[in-house]
Amino acid sequence: FHQLNSKADVVVKADSNRLRGDAQTILQRALLMSRITGAANINFVTSVASEALGRTLDLQEVRAWCAIHDDFEWLDEKGGWFWFGPEPESRLYTVVRKQLVATGDRIDLVDVQAGMNVFPCDYNKVKVNDSDLFGAPGVVLGQVLSRLPWLQSVDQNIFMFTPEEAHKTEPADMLTEVEQAILDLIRANHSVATRAQIHARITKLGLGTEKAADTELERSPIFMKVGPGLYAVRGAPLDPQGLTSASSGQRSNSPVPTDDGPVRWPLLLSEKVIKTRHIFLPASVAKRLKGGDYQVLDPAVTVQVQINPKQSYINGLFAPLMQ
Question: What is the phi/psi pair of residue 223, to 5°?
């Protein structure tokens, strides 16, 4: 096992093949858990290593094998949490780097925990059911972050890049194209963007479907929901102007009576809608419309509406777009 240090190698090679196999399995499971949750837990490692070896391991035996690693350190011995020092690869590191790039400043441990809860991981790597794997508590994650050489503590549980790390970290290396596009939109909208705006942005740039945008919003550690259909950057300050504007925009998507009698319905025409020439409107509009041609004022297009009384929505079929 390539992660064994020289002292562990000497001990393992001097013992039997079975003990060498035990050590490899135990240390491998500990390292993999640490890379997924940020730290390893002795009770979990004992459980998954026992299952992998097909026999029940003694907790003290597992502790002894883990402790032979030169970089072994207890983070919370009472709770059973430890690590093997900084590694080049870790799900926690990815979450932290993404969030720091997104905020452009600093992050709070609370936001790191929230990001870890949504950021996907490969449970197959530790060969356990996802319901069996539990994340490290905040106090443990704080201990890990405070020991990383590329982070500096600004205040209690507040962290930021060291100047050297900030200088060499490129956003393009940390964020997906979809994440970057959503982040740019949120920044341009004074810290808040609506789901409809995000959908339109992603489809217009050709970066994926609306479903792909929703998946990124749900799984990315850098976004958080701040209201119905409203999204912001996790850990970044909220601009009251942006929040008010986005909230008002959400509320405006309802029938608005006009002085001269007709009903006005604010509507976002996404690239997908224009391409497919299909639009679905709520049932509240269906009660006010009859079949025929309708003019969309901005942009100026002609919409042919067909009403299906058996459905709770209108299936609007775009006629050839006309300016």
Answer: -115, 150
